[in-house]
Specification:
This protein is an alpha+beta fold. It has 13 helices and 13 strands.
């Protein structure tokens, strides 16, 4: 199998864990959601099985891709995902930066695998080469938008030159008000975050014009309490739960994953208790400082969609919006039908993306 610029010399259908860890360590743009610890947590908590494929190219570039499918699915109806929904970013990791030619080889290989469908949610920073690789390939691009903060220069540079002045003032205000920040992966911190998260789901439902019972059910399916505890237990070196407290009471929290880069993956708060205290600015300033201390190059702030409020919130830290795409290849139209049904349901309830 060959592409226009790079020939692949070997495709290994079962990439060894040691090989995966070696390639992950060499990939400067790899995300913690691509680490072995995180992929193990996906399998244990989400009921998935994993297949890792390895690609060796003639130019000595090595790449590896983790694909997840439900462990009870029947072979013709397997849906392969990289990664499953609500588990971060996926796509291949590599020993050298990949070109669109490299990616085209990987996409061609994935399209030929047995199963109903394949879905890949890649690193937003690789949007351009993914777009080039997928053009005319039979893969469907699903537009997305995410925000990423470049940490080059360290925390002082980020704080002084990328944070807005009002953001720095908000963080200082929170400290003056006696708001304290506590980070770790203990069960107590996870429990505090989960309580704030369930409260936030109801607030988001009101803003989005969604039934509260439906939002709660969706939240428990997507992010059950067990998931947060297992994430912290199995990935204690990666997961940091940071909780802000006022007078000893938890009022806001974030979950950030750390590896070669950092990824802010969940946030929640008691909006009445937080008010205009600047708590969220202090939380992210704390997490971004830790990312710099860990020598992370990027602080990924996750999906923003079409939400103007999310875009404005992330931009105040200096994060830049990246238009990218999630890619889908179907042998059976399971995913596209599911998407259409979700779209119809959102229109029926007049869902608002705020």
């Amino acid at each position: 199998m060959a592409s226009t610029g790079h020939a692949v010399t070997e495709i290994v259908s079962h990439c060894a864990a040691s090989d995966w860890d070696r390639i992950y360590a060499l990939d400067e743009q790899a995300l913690p959601s691509q680490s072995s610890a995180w992929t193990n947590a996906i399998c244990v908590t989400g009921g998935y099985v994993i297949k890792r494929r390895k690609y060796i190219f003639q130019d000595q570039t090595e790449a590896a891709l983790a694909l997840f499918s439900k462990n009870h699915s029947i072979n013709p109806f397997h849906i392969h995902r990289s990664p499953p929904a609500a588990w971060g970013f996926g796509g291949p990791i590599s020993t050298r930066p990949l070109s669109s030619d490299h990616l085209r080889v990987i996409l061609d290989d994935c399209a030929g695998l047995p199963g109903a469908a394949m879905q890949i949610r890649p690193n937003p920073l690789m949007a351009n080469i993914w777009s080039e690789a997928a053009a005319g390939s039979g893969w469907t691009a699903l537009p997305r938008k995410a925000h990423v903060l470049d940490l080059q220069g360290g925390f002082d540079a980020v704080w002084n030159h990328l944070f807005l002045g009002k953001t720095r003032n908000h963080a200082r205000k929170a400290e003056r008000l006696g708001i304290t920040v506590h980070s770790g992966s203990s069960a107590d911190l996870v429990a505090e975050f989960d309580a704030l998260f369930r409260m936030s789901i109801l607030r988001w439902a009101r803003k989005q014009n969604e039934f509260s019972w439906l939002a709660s059910l969706r939240g428990y399916i997507r992010d059950p309490k067990k998931k947060f505890f297992e994430m912290a237990r199995l990935c204690s070196d990666i997961v940091r739960v940071t909780i802000a407290r006022k007078d000893g009471k938890a009022i806001a929290g974030i979950v950030v994953l750390y590896g070669n880069n950092a990824h802010y993956t969940r946030g929640a708060m008691d909006d009445q208790a937080v008010g205009n205290s600047g708590t969220n600015s202090l939380l992210h300033a704390t997490a971004i400082k830790e990312a710099c201390e860990r020598n992370c190059r990027y602080y990924h702030m996750g999906e923003s969609g079409e939400s103007a409020s999310l875009t404005a919130f992330k931009a105040q830290f200096g994060a830049v919006g990246y238009a990218y795409a999630e890619y889908r290849h179907e042998n059976l139209p399971i995913l596209s039908v599911d998407q259409k049904l979700r779209t119809i349901a959102k229109k029926a309830i007049r869902f608002r993306d705020v």
